Amino acid sequence: METKGKIVVTGGAGYIGSHAVVELFEAGYEPVIVDNFVNSQESALAGVQAITNATIKCHSVDCTDLEALRQVFQAEGTILGVIHFAAYKAVGESVKEPLKYYHNNVGSLVALLQVMTEFKVTKLVFSSSCTVYGVPDQLPVTEATPVKKANSPYGNTKQICEDILADLARSGGSPIHAIALRYFNPVGAHPSAKIGELPLGIPNNLVPFITQTAIGIREKLTVFGTDYSTPDGSNVRDYIHVVDLAKAHVVAIDRLVQNKAEQIEFFNIGTGRGNSVLEVIHTFEEVSGQKLNYVIGPRRGGDVPQIYADVTKATQELGFKTELGLEEALKSAWDWEVSLKNTSEK
Q: Which part of the chain is the NAD(P)-binding domain (predicted)?
Protein backbone atom coordinates (compact mmCIF):
# COMPACT_ATOMS: atom_id res chain seq x y z
CA MET A 1 0.00 0.00 0.00
CA GLU A 2 1.31 3.44 -0.94
CA THR A 3 1.87 5.68 2.10
CA LYS A 4 2.61 9.37 2.55
CA GLY A 5 6.01 8.39 3.96
CA LYS A 6 7.75 7.00 7.03
CA ILE A 7 7.44 8.73 10.39
CA VAL A 8 9.80 7.53 13.13
CA VAL A 9 7.96 7.59 16.48
CA THR A 10 10.32 7.44 19.45
CA GLY A 11 8.54 6.14 22.52
CA GLY A 12 5.89 4.80 20.15
CA ALA A 13 4.93 1.93 22.44
CA GLY A 14 4.14 4.35 25.27
CA TYR A 15 0.78 5.78 26.25
CA ILE A 16 0.59 8.80 23.94
CA GLY A 17 2.98 7.30 21.40
CA SER A 18 0.85 4.22 20.75
CA HIS A 19 -2.24 6.36 20.14
CA ALA A 20 -0.23 8.62 17.80
CA VAL A 21 0.98 5.56 15.86
CA VAL A 22 -2.65 4.53 15.28
CA GLU A 23 -3.64 8.02 14.12
CA LEU A 24 -0.59 8.31 11.84
CA PHE A 25 -1.42 4.97 10.24
CA GLU A 26 -5.05 5.97 9.75
CA ALA A 27 -3.91 9.27 8.18
CA GLY A 28 -1.90 7.37 5.57
CA TYR A 29 1.62 7.55 7.04
CA GLU A 30 3.91 4.61 7.78
CA PRO A 31 4.85 4.82 11.46
CA VAL A 32 8.09 3.18 12.62
CA ILE A 33 8.38 2.74 16.39
CA VAL A 34 11.63 3.20 18.32
CA ASP A 35 11.23 2.21 21.99
CA ASN A 36 13.39 0.55 24.64
CA PHE A 37 10.34 -0.57 26.69
CA VAL A 38 11.66 0.92 29.93
CA ASN A 39 8.41 2.87 30.43
CA SER A 40 6.13 0.82 28.19
CA GLN A 41 5.09 -2.75 27.50
CA GLU A 42 5.27 -4.77 24.32
CA SER A 43 1.58 -5.62 24.72
CA ALA A 44 0.89 -2.10 23.39
CA LEU A 45 2.22 -3.25 20.02
CA ALA A 46 -0.36 -6.05 19.90
CA GLY A 47 -3.08 -3.50 20.68
CA VAL A 48 -1.89 -1.19 17.90
CA GLN A 49 -1.77 -4.14 15.51
CA ALA A 50 -5.33 -5.18 16.45
CA ILE A 51 -6.65 -1.65 15.79
CA THR A 52 -4.76 -1.03 12.53
CA ASN A 53 -4.85 -4.62 11.27
CA ALA A 54 -1.21 -4.04 10.29
CA THR A 55 2.21 -4.97 11.61
CA ILE A 56 3.96 -1.78 12.67
CA LYS A 57 7.74 -2.03 12.54
CA CYS A 58 9.46 -1.58 15.90
CA HIS A 59 13.13 -1.12 16.81
CA SER A 60 14.02 -1.90 20.43
CA VAL A 61 16.50 0.93 20.90
CA ASP A 62 17.44 3.43 23.62
CA CYS A 63 17.28 6.92 22.11
CA THR A 64 20.35 8.08 24.06
CA ASP A 65 22.37 5.46 22.13
CA LEU A 66 23.73 7.41 19.17
CA GLU A 67 25.07 4.41 17.27
CA ALA A 68 21.86 2.38 17.70
CA LEU A 69 19.81 5.35 16.45
CA ARG A 70 22.10 5.64 13.43
CA GLN A 71 21.45 1.99 12.62
CA VAL A 72 17.68 2.57 12.75
CA PHE A 73 17.90 5.49 10.31
CA GLN A 74 20.27 3.50 8.09
CA ALA A 75 17.92 0.50 8.03
CA GLU A 76 14.78 2.54 7.32
CA GLY A 77 16.05 4.50 4.32
CA THR A 78 13.92 7.51 3.41
CA ILE A 79 12.33 8.96 6.55
CA LEU A 80 9.86 11.82 6.17
CA GLY A 81 9.88 13.03 9.77
CA VAL A 82 10.14 12.17 13.44
CA ILE A 83 7.82 12.49 16.44
CA HIS A 84 9.89 12.43 19.62
CA PHE A 85 7.96 11.15 22.65
CA ALA A 86 10.71 9.11 24.35
CA ALA A 87 11.18 10.67 27.81
CA TYR A 88 10.72 9.97 31.48
CA LYS A 89 7.75 11.94 32.75
CA ALA A 90 7.10 11.46 36.50
CA VAL A 91 7.40 14.79 38.29
CA GLY A 92 7.95 13.24 41.73
CA GLU A 93 10.58 10.79 40.50
CA SER A 94 12.44 13.59 38.71
CA VAL A 95 12.77 15.46 42.02
CA LYS A 96 14.37 12.36 43.57
CA GLU A 97 16.47 11.32 40.54
CA PRO A 98 17.31 14.45 38.53
CA LEU A 99 20.37 13.01 36.73
CA LYS A 100 18.31 10.14 35.35
CA TYR A 101 15.92 12.71 33.82
CA TYR A 102 18.62 15.00 32.39
CA HIS A 103 20.51 12.09 30.87
CA ASN A 104 17.47 10.52 29.25
CA ASN A 105 15.26 13.47 28.31
CA VAL A 106 17.93 15.91 27.19
CA GLY A 107 20.43 13.30 25.99
CA SER A 108 17.92 11.54 23.76
CA LEU A 109 16.93 14.77 21.98
CA VAL A 110 20.56 15.75 21.36
CA ALA A 111 21.34 12.27 19.96
CA LEU A 112 18.21 12.32 17.80
CA LEU A 113 18.99 15.77 16.36
CA GLN A 114 22.54 14.66 15.53
CA VAL A 115 21.27 11.60 13.68
CA MET A 116 18.50 13.53 11.92
CA THR A 117 21.13 16.02 10.71
CA GLU A 118 23.42 13.23 9.48
CA PHE A 119 20.59 11.54 7.56
CA LYS A 120 19.07 14.82 6.32
CA VAL A 121 15.71 14.27 8.05
CA THR A 122 14.37 17.77 8.60
CA LYS A 123 10.90 17.51 10.18
CA LEU A 124 10.41 17.03 13.93
CA VAL A 125 7.41 17.14 16.25
CA PHE A 126 8.63 17.42 19.83
CA SER A 127 6.56 16.24 22.77
CA SER A 128 6.74 19.19 25.16
CA SER A 129 4.62 20.01 28.18
CA CYS A 130 2.70 22.73 29.96
CA THR A 131 5.23 22.25 32.80
CA VAL A 132 7.45 24.72 30.89
CA TYR A 133 5.22 27.50 32.25
CA GLY A 134 6.08 26.68 35.88
CA VAL A 135 3.58 28.34 38.24
CA PRO A 136 1.94 30.85 35.86
CA ASP A 137 0.95 34.35 37.01
CA GLN A 138 -2.14 34.43 34.78
CA LEU A 139 -4.58 31.87 33.45
CA PRO A 140 -5.21 30.57 30.91
CA VAL A 141 -1.64 30.29 29.64
CA THR A 142 -0.89 31.32 26.05
CA GLU A 143 2.24 30.51 24.05
CA ALA A 144 3.39 34.06 24.92
CA THR A 145 3.10 33.35 28.67
CA PRO A 146 6.60 33.74 30.14
CA VAL A 147 8.42 30.46 30.65
CA LYS A 148 9.27 30.61 34.36
CA LYS A 149 11.57 28.48 36.46
CA ALA A 150 10.26 24.93 36.27
CA ASN A 151 8.73 23.35 39.35
CA SER A 152 10.63 20.09 38.85
CA PRO A 153 13.65 18.61 37.04
CA TYR A 154 11.17 16.96 34.64
CA GLY A 155 9.73 20.37 33.73
CA ASN A 156 13.23 21.76 33.39
CA THR A 157 14.21 19.02 30.91
CA LYS A 158 11.31 20.13 28.70
CA GLN A 159 12.43 23.76 28.95
CA ILE A 160 16.01 22.78 28.09
CA CYS A 161 14.85 20.69 25.12
CA GLU A 162 12.80 23.62 23.80
CA ASP A 163 15.87 25.87 24.24
CA ILE A 164 17.98 23.37 22.28
CA LEU A 165 15.46 23.42 19.41
CA ALA A 166 15.32 27.24 19.48
CA ASP A 167 19.14 27.50 19.54
CA LEU A 168 19.35 25.09 16.61
CA ALA A 169 16.86 27.22 14.66
CA ARG A 170 18.81 30.42 15.50
CA SER A 171 22.12 28.87 14.46
CA GLY A 172 21.14 29.36 10.83
CA GLY A 173 23.01 26.23 9.80
CA SER A 174 20.36 23.62 10.48
CA PRO A 175 17.66 22.62 8.01
CA ILE A 176 15.58 21.04 10.80
CA HIS A 177 12.07 22.48 11.28
CA ALA A 178 10.45 21.64 14.61
CA ILE A 179 7.01 21.99 16.17
CA ALA A 180 6.92 21.68 19.95
CA LEU A 181 3.51 20.70 21.26
CA ARG A 182 3.06 21.87 24.84
CA TYR A 183 0.37 19.63 26.06
CA PHE A 184 -1.62 19.50 29.13
CA ASN A 185 -2.92 16.36 30.90
CA PRO A 186 -3.66 13.45 28.56
CA VAL A 187 -6.33 11.06 29.83
CA GLY A 188 -8.51 8.28 28.48
CA ALA A 189 -7.91 5.42 26.06
CA HIS A 190 -8.65 4.36 22.51
CA PRO A 191 -12.40 3.69 22.05
CA SER A 192 -11.58 0.10 21.06
CA ALA A 193 -10.18 -0.46 24.60
CA LYS A 194 -7.18 -2.17 22.94
CA ILE A 195 -4.62 0.46 24.00
CA GLY A 196 -4.57 2.89 26.90
CA GLU A 197 -2.47 4.13 29.79
CA LEU A 198 -0.43 1.24 31.16
CA PRO A 199 1.60 2.49 34.13
CA LEU A 200 4.36 0.23 35.43
CA GLY A 201 3.91 -0.20 39.18
CA ILE A 202 2.05 2.47 41.15
CA PRO A 203 0.59 5.10 38.77
CA ASN A 204 1.89 8.68 38.96
CA ASN A 205 -1.11 10.07 37.10
CA LEU A 206 -4.57 10.69 38.49
CA VAL A 207 -6.82 8.80 36.07
CA PRO A 208 -5.09 5.37 36.13
CA PHE A 209 -5.01 5.65 39.94
CA ILE A 210 -8.76 6.33 39.84
CA THR A 211 -9.51 3.35 37.58
CA GLN A 212 -7.19 1.02 39.50
CA THR A 213 -8.87 2.03 42.76
CA ALA A 214 -12.34 1.52 41.26
CA ILE A 215 -11.45 -1.98 40.04
CA GLY A 216 -9.83 -3.00 43.33
CA ILE A 217 -6.10 -2.96 42.49
CA ARG A 218 -5.54 0.00 44.83
CA GLU A 219 -7.18 0.26 48.22
CA LYS A 220 -7.80 3.99 48.05
CA LEU A 221 -7.04 7.15 46.12
CA THR A 222 -5.32 10.07 47.82
CA VAL A 223 -6.19 13.61 46.75
CA PHE A 224 -2.99 15.61 47.29
CA GLY A 225 -4.27 18.74 48.97
CA THR A 226 -7.63 20.51 49.05
CA ASP A 227 -6.27 23.79 50.40
CA TYR A 228 -5.25 25.37 47.09
CA SER A 229 -6.82 28.65 45.98
CA THR A 230 -9.08 26.88 43.46
CA PRO A 231 -12.89 26.61 43.41
CA ASP A 232 -12.97 23.42 45.51
CA GLY A 233 -9.43 23.53 46.93
CA SER A 234 -8.01 20.70 44.78
CA ASN A 235 -5.56 21.05 41.87
CA VAL A 236 -6.98 22.19 38.53
CA ARG A 237 -5.67 20.78 35.25
CA ASP A 238 -6.62 20.83 31.57
CA TYR A 239 -7.47 17.19 30.79
CA ILE A 240 -7.25 16.32 27.09
CA HIS A 241 -8.46 13.03 25.61
CA VAL A 242 -5.42 11.07 24.43
CA VAL A 243 -7.05 10.40 21.03
CA ASP A 244 -7.44 14.15 20.46
CA LEU A 245 -3.84 14.66 21.54
CA ALA A 246 -2.64 11.95 19.15
CA LYS A 247 -4.49 13.64 16.29
CA ALA A 248 -2.71 16.92 17.10
CA HIS A 249 0.60 15.21 16.29
CA VAL A 250 -0.70 14.15 12.89
CA VAL A 251 -1.84 17.74 12.20
CA ALA A 252 1.64 18.97 13.20
CA ILE A 253 3.35 16.43 10.90
CA ASP A 254 1.02 17.50 8.06
CA ARG A 255 2.02 21.14 8.63
CA LEU A 256 5.73 20.26 8.47
CA VAL A 257 5.31 18.03 5.41
CA GLN A 258 3.44 20.82 3.61
CA ASN A 259 6.31 23.21 4.50
CA LYS A 260 3.92 25.59 6.27
CA ALA A 261 5.89 25.73 9.54
CA GLU A 262 8.43 28.30 10.68
CA GLN A 263 11.78 26.83 11.72
CA ILE A 264 10.57 26.47 15.32
CA GLU A 265 6.95 26.75 16.50
CA PHE A 266 5.23 26.23 19.83
CA PHE A 267 1.58 25.29 20.34
CA ASN A 268 -0.53 24.67 23.43
CA ILE A 269 -2.54 21.49 23.01
CA GLY A 270 -5.39 21.26 25.49
CA THR A 271 -9.14 21.73 25.78
CA GLY A 272 -8.98 25.34 26.96
CA ARG A 273 -10.72 24.62 30.26
CA GLY A 274 -9.67 23.36 33.66
CA ASN A 275 -11.18 20.63 35.83
CA SER A 276 -10.31 20.04 39.46
CA VAL A 277 -9.19 16.69 40.86
CA LEU A 278 -12.45 16.40 42.81
CA GLU A 279 -14.44 17.22 39.65
CA VAL A 280 -12.63 14.42 37.80
CA ILE A 281 -13.40 11.99 40.62
CA HIS A 282 -17.11 12.88 40.67
CA THR A 283 -17.35 12.76 36.86
CA PHE A 284 -15.71 9.33 36.85
CA GLU A 285 -18.23 8.09 39.43
CA GLU A 286 -21.08 9.32 37.22
CA VAL A 287 -19.87 7.79 33.92
CA SER A 288 -18.69 4.48 35.40
CA GLY A 289 -21.30 3.90 38.10
CA GLN A 290 -18.43 3.10 40.51
CA LYS A 291 -18.13 4.65 43.95
CA LEU A 292 -14.54 5.67 44.66
CA ASN A 293 -12.77 5.25 47.97
CA TYR A 294 -10.72 8.44 48.24
CA VAL A 295 -9.09 10.35 51.08
CA ILE A 296 -7.65 13.86 51.38
CA GLY A 297 -3.89 13.95 51.92
CA PRO A 298 -1.21 16.65 52.14
CA ARG A 299 0.06 18.54 49.11
CA ARG A 300 2.61 16.79 46.88
CA GLY A 301 5.98 18.41 46.06
CA GLY A 302 6.30 19.83 42.55
CA ASP A 303 2.55 20.22 41.94
CA VAL A 304 1.35 23.47 40.35
CA PRO A 305 -1.94 24.69 41.94
CA GLN A 306 -3.76 25.19 38.64
CA ILE A 307 -3.02 25.42 34.94
CA TYR A 308 -5.07 25.28 31.77
CA ALA A 309 -4.54 26.34 28.19
CA ASP A 310 -5.52 29.13 25.90
CA VAL A 311 -5.80 27.15 22.66
CA THR A 312 -6.46 30.06 20.27
CA LYS A 313 -3.13 29.71 18.45
CA ALA A 314 -3.52 25.95 17.89
CA THR A 315 -7.05 26.52 16.59
CA GLN A 316 -6.14 29.40 14.26
CA GLU A 317 -2.68 28.43 12.99
CA LEU A 318 -2.58 24.66 13.35
CA GLY A 319 -6.26 24.17 12.58
CA PHE A 320 -6.61 21.86 15.57
CA LYS A 321 -9.28 21.65 18.21
CA THR A 322 -10.38 18.89 20.56
CA GLU A 323 -13.53 16.90 19.85
CA LEU A 324 -13.85 14.73 22.96
CA GLY A 325 -14.75 15.78 26.50
CA LEU A 326 -13.87 14.69 30.02
CA GLU A 327 -16.83 12.29 30.19
CA GLU A 328 -15.71 10.39 27.07
CA ALA A 329 -12.12 10.32 28.33
CA LEU A 330 -13.05 8.89 31.73
CA LYS A 331 -15.51 6.38 30.23
CA SER A 332 -12.82 5.13 27.82
CA ALA A 333 -10.28 4.92 30.66
CA TRP A 334 -12.71 2.76 32.64
CA ASP A 335 -13.45 0.54 29.61
CA TRP A 336 -9.69 0.08 29.20
CA GLU A 337 -9.22 -0.85 32.88
CA VAL A 338 -12.06 -3.41 32.63
CA SER A 339 -10.51 -4.79 29.44
CA LEU A 340 -7.14 -5.23 31.20
CA LYS A 341 -8.83 -7.11 34.03
CA ASN A 342 -10.74 -9.37 31.63
CA THR A 343 -7.55 -10.12 29.70
CA SER A 344 -5.60 -10.97 32.87
CA GLU A 345 -8.35 -13.32 34.05
CA LYS A 346 -8.39 -15.37 30.84
A: 9-331
